[in-house]
Structure formats: C-alpha cells, structure tokens
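Quick note —
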Amino acid sequence: MIRVITDSSCDLPEELAVTHGIEIVPLKIRFGDLEFTDRLELSHAQFWQRLATSPDLPETSAPSAGTFRQSYTSLAEAGAEGIVAICLSSSLSGTYQAAVIAAEQTAGVQIRVVDSQNVSMALGFQVLEAARAAARGENIDRVAAAALAARDRTNFIVALDTLDYLQRGGRIGSTQAFLGGLLNIKPLITMEDGVVAALGRVRTRSRALAALVERAGELGSVIEEVAVVTGNAPDVDDFRQQLSALMPTHLIAEIGPVVGTHSGPGVIGFAYRLGPDRR
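Predicted structure written out below.
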C-alpha cells in the first residue's frame, strides 16, 4: 500500500490522521532558548497558553532532511510500497526542500514529494485526498496526482485579530502593499501562488465574521468539504452556527503552533475543498 506523509502545519485533527493512516512529521517551535517538537512536546493548548505569557515571541523551524528520512525508512520497513509526502508551501518554509532531499537519500522505496502551495487545513484537505486514493489501492503516481488535483481546489479564508504576528514573522508577503501601515484592522487573508494574500479588511471583529460568512455563502454551492479553522478564538461557536446555515456539516480544525506562530491568537475562518472542475 502507498503511505501518505505530511508535516505538522497541516492542522489535521489527530483522529483524522490516525483513521487515514497519515504520518505527520513535526516542525520545531522555539520560545527563546526553549525548543519544542510540535504535537509531541507542545500541544495546541500549551502553545496558546505559552504565547499569552512568554516574554519571547515564538519561531518555527522546518524538519531536517534526516527527520523525513527516518519517517520514510520507518514506513518502508513497515511494508509501504511507496510514499507520497505532501508539504506546506515551499514559499513559506524549507520543509518541502527537506522532504525532497530526504527522498533522494532514501533507497529501497519509491517516494513522491508534492508542494501543496498552502498550509493549515487547505494542506490537510490535499493530504486527505491523497490518503483516500491510497486507501482505494491506487499506485504511487495516482496518489500523488490526487494531491495535485486537489491543490488547485483547496484554500482557506481567515480573519486575523491582529497583524502583529504575521508582520513579525516575515510571512506577510503580498499583503504588505495592500495593508500599508494600518495595524489596527481585522484583515481577511488567503493563499495565492503559495504565499499569503489579502482579501479585504474591516475595522471590527463582528464585521470580520460577517465578511467570512459572506465569502462562505459565495462559495457554498461548489464546496465539497469545509472545516472551521480556529486559533483560540472565543467566538468560534457563534461562527460555526452562522456557517452551518450555509454549508453541510463541517469539522473543526484547531490551528496549531506552526500556523499560530504567524497568525497570532484569535484567528478564525474556514478552509475548503471545491468539487471536481471547480476553481
């Protein structure tokens, strides 16, 4: 069987990863001199608590090629006929490159590495599509193709509570010109061509939620899967109720330390996968 690997920026709920046999390679999170392995040494709740109290802003670092190589080797020894690794956008992290280098260094098993050009549950939905193809018994090229086919049909739209973390982390991308020096706003962001892009801006939290619901309504008829994404947002239940009126049942994806380092607390929105031939 073909096995699927991703990294911990995917924000896939643990139960989904286990159900679909998805291996998750962790990134590292640093608070000053303290370093933690995502998911293993730092839970989502622990991250948000530390973010609120630590004098040091967190930083993230990509897994090493050696870490990916260990995962590849472990899966191969467990009987994997091939491995498809789907990583967060290569424009945001060195994770994809580490996975590629590790694939070149690993003998005895076929490996395909896919640049998702996305992050969080938009990456997660691509990973799920690949895992479903693997479960159907597809070969390695078809499993990789399933991820690639989903890449153009997955994205997210979220509202940030503050721009501070995105700016400090250097991930503001093309939003810089759009947002200028206005930090006291609630920006709506998405991904375009593998980098963060601005969709709009409002002045209040309530308007941000309304704008998200409006965007969801515009996409509702062509969405096949949707997930509420939340980073310690206090109003997530209210947002879920509003979204439920427009879309079928959706899952909740808690934003973890990797994405949370750059989004900051209070981020809320939705990730989605469009149906076939919908872009």
